[in-house]
Amino acid sequence: MSSAPIADLSYRGYDGTLESPRHRWWVIARMLILLTFKKRSFWVLAFLAGLGFYFTTLVLYIFESMASGPFGGTAQEFFSQIRWKNNFVTCFGWMQMFLLFITLLAGAGSIANDNRANALLVYLSKPCRKGDYLFGKWAGIAILVGGVALAQFTLFYLYCLMSYRTYGFLSQDPWLYPKLVFLAAVTGSIYASLMVGVSSLFRQGSVAGATFAGLYFITYFFTTVIEGIRVFQTMDRRGSMPMLDGLYYASIDGICYGLGKAILGSDGRPIFQPPNQRLPVVPIPSGLLLALAALIVCGLFVWMAWKRIRAVEVVA
User: Fold this and answer.
1) 16 located within any domain
2) Closest of 112, 181, 107 to residue 147, by C-alpha
3) Which residues contact 176 (CB under 8 A, 6 or more apart)?
4) Which of 120, 184, 191, 249 is deepest in the core (most CB within 10 A)?
């Protein structure tokens, strides 16, 4: 038996140009996106993510139909009280759970399964920098999650633009759509940052997905308790506590929802709730503080992924 050392066939000693392929990260991101597109469950979840918008569309259509009938006065009063961006914030909150499932579907195994298959040695020896690999995985998840959110925003926005311009839809906030694009990008970035960090810690996509889902629901349960306390205080006419208002956004769902409120400038008051009615609506958070918290948390998870991503060494 030969005792010759195992040859290192990787490209770790390569000193040539790294410009080909030109966009290495996009090759990785595109593959993740295409693999997710092949899953029927993705399209089902993408459709279900818009349930809030579909329901709101039905309500608006019913009231618009009433405008020319005997209940025309009630319908006119209803439309006169609508703040259109509130509808987007409310439906965006309902969308969060489905964005979670899309994140799990697309990203739970994005790095974990590569760890299990020892595929990082292949990826990082093409030559492909670690930054290309990580950014490609991150971008693939961010594009999928943000794209679903933006698609639902766009469909509802176009419907309202064509149907309710006479009710002040466009005049209330002419910059609403650019804000929605920005919100979709921020949401995709947050979910992608957290998912790549969790996925990099494991060698099984199912374990990474269960961990991320557990983190989501534990923090969601905490903020639900905070919301219950706020409702009790409001019903007891004790008023709200600023600390509770801040803790309400201390979850994955809450960070995205709070940033949605701050970006759109809306407290997310439900469509059926008149502005002068006293119900426990959590006020708009400080966009700067919430953005800073999101950057710190997302930066921590991306850093974790960066430290965990490394090729398997070849031992001579």
Assistant:
1) no
2) 181
3) 84, 85, 88, 157, 264
4) 191
